[in-house]
Amino acid sequence: MASRKKVLLKVIILGDSGVGKTSLMNQYVAKKFSNQYKATIGADFLTKEVMVDDRLVTMQIWDTAGQERFQSLGVAFYRGADGCVLVFDVTMPNTFRSLDSWRDEFLIQASPRDPENFPFVVIGNKVDLENRGVSGRRAQGWCHTKGDIPYFETSAKEAINVEQAFQAVAKNAMAQETDVELCSEFPDPIKLSGDNNKPQGNNCPC
Amino acid sequence: MASEAEERQRLLRAVKKEVKQIMEEAVTRKFVHEESSSLTSLCAAVEACLLHCLKKRALGLFKYGSTMALLQKLSKVFEPAAEVSKLVSDMESPSSTELSGSRKSLDNNKNQTKKSTSSIPSSPKFLWLRVAIFHKKLAKILDYLVQNSSKYYEVEALIADPVDGPIFASLLVGPCALDYTKMKTSDHFWTDPPADELVQRHRIHSGNHAFASPGSPKRQGLQVRRDASNAQEEARDPKTFHMSAREYVESLHQNSKLTLLYGKNNVLVQPENKEALAGYLSLHQSSEGLIIMWTPNQLMNGCCEDSREETDRSQYWEFAMTIYLDEVVYIHCHQQPDCRGTVVLVGQDGVQRPPIHFPKGGHLLSFLSCLETGLQPNGQLDPPLWSQKGKGKNTGKVFPKLRRKGSRLSSSTSSSSSSTTSMDEEEATDYVFRIIASFKPDMLTPEMLDPKAPRSSHSPRNLPNSTTPAAPEERAPWPVRRQLPPSPLVRSSVQAYALSQEEQNESCLVQASNDATHRYYDYINHIKQLCDIMTKQIISRAFYGWLAHCRHLKTVRTHLSGLVYHVIVAEDDPIDASDGLTLQAWDKLCCDGVVKDSGEVYRRVYYGGVCHELRRQVWPYLLGHYKFGSTPEEREGLEAAMGADYEKVMSEWLAVEAIIRQRDKETVAANLAKLSQESTDGHIPLVRKDSSLSNEVFVSFESEELSRPETVVEESSTARTTPSSDRKTSMELSITAASTSSMGGIDRAVGTETPPVAIVKKDSVHRGPSQQESPDDGLGGSFARGESVVIESERPKTDSVGDSGILTPMTPRSLPADVTDRIQMTAKLSVDSAVEDGGSVGGGLDSASSTGGGKSRTGSATDDGEQLHQQQGLGSGKIEGGLTVEKCGGPGSRVQEYEDALVSSDASDHLSASKESLLSPASPASNGGIYSAELLDSVALNLHRIDKDVQRCDRNYHYFTPENLEKLRNIMCTYVWQNLDIGYVQGMCDLVAPLLVIFNDESLAYSCFCQLMKRMSCNFPPHGGAMDTHFANMRSLIQILDSELFEHMHLHGDYTHFYFCYRWFLLDFKRELVYDDVFSVWETIWAAKHMTSSHFVLFIALALVQVYRDIILDNNMDFTDIIKFFNEMAERHNAKQVLKIARELILRLQTLIDNK
């Protein structure tokens, strides 16, 4: 039988300022886009209930400030994260290049159990804009070198691919969770033999 | 007519929106809570529609604009309406069935829905609508109404409209099909109700006073007491019944509203004329007091069993009991020898509840001890149970050793004489306990002493006696109702009354031996001993309590006394300052433009704020920009100096900005060239737009190297690659060369000052002021003007270019002119022949083409290409220095010209540019230069960030039009240029914005911003040490001023850091409040610095926490919930109230410190 236990997934959105973290979060959770968002100060989060592999999961999505100086206060938010969404702006190559440092910083601060396989997702946002600066192949390549991180090209404005990207992070985070249960001391044998153990493929739509 | 139609549409839209909302809620949450805010707003929308063009006579005599009268009219002719009407009237006139107390105690469960609706006393307006929705009748009623609209409505009414009316009615079909619940399930908590819903709920439940007195020590619960009276004749709709049954059983368990104190199964209750039934007895603690519930086993054992038994079991609901302990005055306990016990509860009206029989074992006792614990601290059992130490069965409580209840027969004449019975040791089996309220643990406080305490003459220490019928009543926090005078009809009550008198004398344990109790002298001694022990314990506890309090005060004094000034400035001395600084008051204070009485200004601002028209004048004083006592002339002088200074600084960074743009443009060009080179080997000209596509083709993974040059385009200071930095240094080299050459205005500066940076400064110093006088006079002046014109016209586009990085021609638009100028001027410098070429071309051409020319010419020669770049950098550098008259002459037209030329020639030019020339610098050496690469990088990064945030700053506020955003940007850039070590940190824009709104003057806003930043800059990371101090202070303050909340926060996660306050402190609440409130909060903060505390922000934060403390506590919010709550509450706070509370908190702390 499927576990009736509610699952809370904590997902952090990281990326340079202005890449559209807040917009992505709001597009995903509230299905709306506004061009009125201000620069995020501190942190905010929204929750959304989603079905992942027949389990009801509450995603707690944390939106953070983009300026790296605010990272010092991110520690409290990163702690206990189950997934991380790295966002860059496809029209701004430098936002893509800082993904490295965002990822490293996150792994240092959140110090997850299994950094190699921590469920990241990379989002190249703003594909609705024309002046593309980072090619899909380049982003894809980076993701590949970092352990096949799923890569999505989205537009928070046009609601392109947003759902899929977050669904992927939820799915991967759930898979991790199940894995953790596997090796924990008190496994629930019934639960484990069942669902949630499907191999995770590369979720990239490209 | 048209407006009527519009109105109809508006009403209909509102209903549609609300219906959508509630249906969504039903989908996302699987059910809708009866108290959901969306339901309330739906009712409001429906009500509005119903009221639309309602015939006057249908409105009836109801004074409030309610449709209740309409319902009553309908109920005469339409059956469903009649049902709803009946339900509503039942609800509105409760307690008519009070007569039979036993009936009352039987909590018939079928009234659940009904009760819940009546539990919303503050919104009776929509009561019938709610009821109709809950009972799925509303759609029918509306349908009927639409069909018979002519009777009740004017022709133009929404309801009467042939199209809109039926639409309206059918809209409500959906909501009427939903199931509503009042159940709190785990689901409910998981779905995180939004902040406004929480606030609304809180308002509904706690009435008005909770918000008015946030500091009240006793918090309001969410539990609304159910009215048990009007239970019986509820519709027996099996579905509702079933649902409420489940709810009921659910409510017996521990849940958010009720704490389960005691539970025992198989407790027998003997209803009237029936045989005893076994059931589950539970004792619950709600915020209203204790509730005893008993439910027959038949109902408990799986309420969801097959429906075959449904009808059978339903009769048991008759017997289920819910007893509110505050209605109970006496508890009669009968203990059988075999350790079984019976409890009979007697209400204040003297009515006995059915006896409750406890099974064997100390269940009765444990029930009583739970009860006693539950009653504390606001009530207690009289006599109290005794703590038994060691001996006996348990370590817990035992019955007090009193005389047997049998004695009551002899003392039933309500005397205190009594005590005829012998002390039969453990055999004492019958007791009567009285439930009394007490205010304080200390029972002997004067207020507890009833002056009319009867008959206890022999007892010098009067027991607090609250049973005197005639005693005027104090408001007890936990209400104890007066008992009625004993009625002869209710024997037990009389007995109990008498007995209680007697017992209380007894149990006060003091001098009961005065009268006939000598026989029990030893027994009394024993009591005395115990009493002594208790006294000691109490005293020691009191002592430790006092000690803790002292320590606590010490903490306050050592840690917090620095937060507030010790001198209390009164609000109404010499005159009431709550009106704030009004125009009249300002006129009075301002003699001939000189304001001397700073104290009065501060006091008025602190207590009442500044009148909005005055803010522009007063704020500079408050911020310390103007000195009190300064003359208008002095201030004007200051303004002029500041203005000049501002201009000067601005021209500096504008110059740097131009360099940066040029640099960016080059790299853009370089990238483009590189890309085209790579892909087509220079044969096919690339159309700009295409490159976004071609990008994907060209850039392969191994091309890390190749893609590096992009770095220069962006400001990311991280990961600079060698080629680019080399290029920059080479650029500096050439700039240096230029500055040493004797050219234009530059050599003038060079003559005086060696450090290259100062060159620019010096120039601008001269030229800033001269700008006004004569454009021709100072080059810099004209430069500055021309420059800003160009920049302003282009910024919006530049931003998009910044994003796009590569392809649009706008960014360099201002630069071609510069470059051309430079090329012309530096022709003599002739570092390279290519420049000469460029220069010659530049006479009529744009820079891009000249660049292209240079490049194409030197395509094979790497050195040449590099030098060309140097020249470009040099060009812009010199422009900053203050440039050519000809440029000033007609920048606009030239720019246009250049741009056109650029667009046309660009593609081919870039095409021909060789990749090598960009990637391998030839002259990497050289140090020095006007601006170091680091500086440029840093400025570029900051500018980029500023641009990003300025664009996003308060876009929805009317003031921030593009040109005002431009001002904001200028101020921001100027500040950052002056404070490059701090740099731009997100949030600074938010601090400038309100100042700019008030002053609408760049240089004044800038000066005041600098003043403001003296206090604020230490909040910003990475130097944000002040933030931690704020958090630590918050922690101490909450601990001192609201310990309950402090405890809660400690229990719920990591509160060592008050992250939810982060934005508050960083931005002085700018994001938390709407603009008008920001103004008043800010000026209060500034005034407070001179009045009560330089940490006024702390107290505002504290006030915000206080306002919502009940919501935080009631909803058991943890660390993340609070962050979310306050984020959602942003711009919805009541600033006036918050400020008032903040001032009160300061006063509280001041007095606390004063008390020593």
Automatic annotation (TrEMBL), chain A:
Chief place of localization: membrane
Keyword Nucleotide-binding: yes
Name of this chain's protein: Ras-related protein Rab-7a
PANTHER family, per database record: RAB FAMILY (PTHR47981), RAS-RELATED PROTEIN RAB-7A (PTHR47981:SF20)
Entries under SMART domains matching the protein: RAB, RAN, RAS, RHO
GO biological process, one term: phagosome-lysosome fusion
Transmembrane segments: none
SUPFAM superfamilies: P-loop containing nucleoside triphosphate hydrolases
GO cellular component: late endosome membrane; lysosome; phagocytic vesicle
Species annotation: Elysia chlorotica (Eastern emerald elysia)
Classification of source organism: Eukaryota, Metazoa, Spiralia, Lophotrochozoa, Mollusca
Keyword Ligase found: no
Gene3D superfamilies per UniProt: P-loop containing nucleotide triphosphate hydrolases
UniProt keywords, alphabetically: GTP-binding, Lipoprotein, Nucleotide-binding, Prenylation
Similarity comment text for this entry: Belongs to the small GTPase superfamily. Rab family.
Subcellular localization, as worded in the UniProt entry: Late endosome membrane
GO molecular-function terms, A-Z: GTP binding; GTPase activity
TrEMBL record, chain B:
Composition-biased stretches (Basic residues): 390-407
SMART domains: RUN, TBC
The RUN domain, residue ranges: 33-188
Lineage, opening ranks: Eukaryota, Metazoa, Spiralia, Lophotrochozoa, Mollusca
A cellular-component GO term for this protein: cytoplasmic vesicle
Source species of the chain: Elysia crispata (lettuce slug)
Single annotated GO MF: GTPase activator activity
The protein, known as: Small G protein signaling modulator 1
Ranges of compositional bias, category Low complexity: 410-422
